[in-house]
Amino acid sequence: MPHLLSFLITLVASTLKTMSLFSLDDTAIKAEYALIIEALKKTGYNKTKAAQLLGVDRKTLYRKITSYERSQQIDNEQKVA
C-alpha cells in the first residue's frame, strides 16, 4: 500500500502543476480513479481483489468505475460538440 500512496501523491502533484485552474473535486476523482487502476493492475484486473486491496466493497468499486467512465464519456462528447 505505501507504493499506492506514493503513486497517488505524485499524480496529484503533477496534476496540480499542469493546471492553472482546477476543481478540487475533479482532481480528487482523477486521483481516486488512478488509485483504482493501480490496484486493478496489481491484482491482475481482478475487481474483487482490487476492492479488498483498496478496502472498499466490490459493489462500491464497480460503481466508482462506472461513474468515472460515464463522466469521461460526457466530457468527450462535450469536447466534440
Number of helices: 4
Could you list the spans in which at least 5 consecutive residues all have pLDDT below 50?
none
Straight-line N-to-C gap: 41 Å
Q: Tell me the fraction of residues in β-strands, as a range.
A: under 5%
Sheet bearing the most strands, described? none
- Determine the mean pLDDT: 80
CATH topology: Arc Repressor Mutant, subunit A
Walkthrough of the structure:
The protein is globular. The chain has four helices and no strands. It has helices spanning 2-18, 24-42, 47-54, 58-80. Helix 2 crosses helix 3 (47-54). The protein is mainly α and 81 residues long. It has a single domain (2-80), classed as Arc Repressor Mutant, subunit A (Orthogonal Bundle), CATH 1.10.10.
